[in-house]
């Protein structure tokens, strides 16, 4: 295929992915009550699933302080077209998130023909694992990281006389930043997998620099969470587990490559004899 033909193929992949995002966005736009009342504004109410589970945990271990009876802030809209603009932008973001697996699949369909057969074989299941890790990270951010951050920031005050009247844009920014940051961080195993396949990283390198990685992970957790120890620990633990999983993935990739090389050498030696 010529360069123009490649661009034409890419254009149709982009068009199909854009149509999928638009369809999901329209669905989210018309499902306004569920998207906003149940999904977006859920972490702002004490009956949210995460708060109820923490309360149940507190009651079982004798720590009633884990129960949250009130979220100490009111969400306000300060612009005439603010709610309409937020409705449109949020619907698009929901459509982008829901359409991510299909979007990545279309991108993979464009890239895959340019790979060697062995590379295609090695990357089998890439769309599934990338999508699964993305959604897992998103759910972790939405149900764990974001509610803890919102509750901490709402409960923190410098003086009891100051009321928390939070702008809608500020609330949405906190919720989406926490959720999407976790979704991206959870892609670490797949990033390491492809880097290991390309020979750019090994399990030995990751083991040697584990201490440095822990420091970086703590910094990342501090950036995407409020300055509160509990939230940072809860976010840090799964990232550390993902890093250890990535070391095993890199080791497995190296072992498979060694086996393949030995098999090829044995086959070549048999032919020469």
From TrEMBL:
Main localization (coarse): membrane
Protein's UniProt keywords contain Transmembrane: yes
UniProt keyword terms in alphabetical order: Cell membrane, Membrane, Protein transport, Translocation, Transmembrane, Transmembrane helix, Transport
GO terms under biological process: intracellular protein transmembrane transport; protein transport by the Tat complex
GO cellular component: TAT protein transport complex
Transmembrane segments: 12-31, 84-105, 126-150, 170-196, 208-225, 231-250
Localization, UniProt: Cell membrane; Membrane
Membrane topology recorded in Swiss-Prot or TrEMBL: Multi-pass membrane protein
Domain of life: Bacteria
Keyword Transmembrane helix: yes
Entry-linked Pfam families: TatC (PF00902)
One example GO MF annotation: proton motive force dependent protein transmembrane transporter activity
HAMAP family in alphabetical order: TatC
Function in brief: Part of the twin-arginine translocation (Tat) system that transports large folded proteins containing a characteristic twin-arginine motif in their signal peptide across membranes.
Subunit comment: Forms a complex with TatA.
Protein family (similarity comment): Belongs to the TatC family.
Full protein name: Sec-independent protein translocase protein TatC
Source organism of this protein record: Hymenobacter aerilatus
């Amino acid at each position: 295929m010529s360069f123009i033909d490649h661009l034409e193929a890419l254009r149709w992949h982009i068009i199909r992915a854009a149509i999928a995002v638009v369809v999901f966005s329209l669905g989210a736009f018309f499902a306004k009550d569920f998207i906003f009342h149940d999904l977006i504004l859920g972490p702002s109410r004490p009956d949210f699933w995460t708060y109820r589970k923490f309360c149940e945990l507190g009651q079982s271990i004798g720590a009633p302080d884990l129960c949250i009876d009130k979220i100490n802030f009111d969400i306000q809209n300060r612009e005439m077209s603010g709610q309409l603009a937020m409705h449109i932008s949020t619907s698009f973001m929901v459509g982008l998130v829901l359409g991510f697996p299909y979007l990545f699949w279309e991108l993979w369909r464009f890239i895959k023909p340019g790979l060697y057969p062995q590379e295609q074989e090695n990357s089998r299941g890439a769309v599934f694992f990338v999508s699964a890790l993305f959604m897992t990270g998103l759910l972790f951010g939405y149900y764990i990281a974001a509610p803890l951050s919102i509750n901490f920031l709402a409960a923190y005050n410098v003086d009891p006389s100051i009321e928390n009247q939070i702008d809608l844009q500020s609330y949405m920014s906190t919720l989406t930043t926490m959720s999407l940051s976790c979704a991206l961080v959870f892609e670490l195993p797949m990033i390491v997998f492809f880097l290991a396949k390309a020979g750019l990283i090994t399990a030995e390198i990751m083991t040697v620099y584990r201490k440095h990685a822990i420091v970086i992970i703590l910094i990342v957790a501090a950036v995407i969470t409020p300055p509160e120890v509990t939230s940072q620990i809860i976010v840090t633990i799964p990232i550390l587990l993902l890093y250890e999983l990535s070391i095993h993935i890199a080791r497995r990739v190296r072992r498979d490559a060694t086996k393949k090389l030995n098999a090829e050498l044995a086959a070549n030696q048999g032919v020469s004899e």
